[in-house]
Amino acid sequence: MAKVEHDLTDEQWSALQVAWAGCAYCGATDRPLQRDCVLPISRGGRYTVRNVVPACGPCNASKCNDEVTGWLRRKRLDERAFLTRLVEIGAALE
């Protein structure tokens, strides 16, 4: 992680949590949220406003370093809705 440049600010993280209003993957609102990289750091991702989403612990642990669209399909979550929102929220907060 020390070799990767990250630029997500605390303000952006707070704004992401408000914009998603729960887990970006499953929509859970009843548990603490964690920062999850859509493109995992192990696959070249970084902590940036366009690559980080709030995720509940179970989703974050389940996704691990999987590619997000394949993981969403396996979990039978709405891939299209997630990707659309990801782009919209990222553009609005950048």
- What's the count of strands? 2
N to C succession of SSEs: HEEHHH
What percent of residues are in strands?
A: 5-15%
Strand order of the largest sheet: 1-2
Radius of gyration computed on alpha carbons? 12 Å
Residue share in helices? 40-55%
Class from helix and strand fractions:
alpha+beta
The pLDDT mean sits at: 93
Pfam families: HNH_5
Keywords: Endonuclease, Hydrolase, Nuclease
GO molecular function, one term: endonuclease activity
Domain HNH nuclease: 11-61
Description:
The protein is α+β, with helices and mostly antiparallel strands and 94 residues long. It has a two-stranded antiparallel ribbon. α1 crosses α4. It is globular. The chain starts with 9 loop residues before the first helix and ends with a helix. The mean pLDDT is 93.
Which features does this protein show?
single chain; 94 residues; alpha+beta; two-stranded antiparallel ribbon; 4 helices; globular; endonuclease activity; nuclease; hydrolase; HNH endonuclease signature motif containing protein
Summarize the model shown.
This is HNH endonuclease signature motif containing protein. By secondary structure, the protein is α+β, with helices and mostly antiparallel strands.
List the helices and strands and how they pair.
Elements: H1 10-20, E1 33-37, E2 52-56, H2 57-63, H3 68-74, H4 79-93
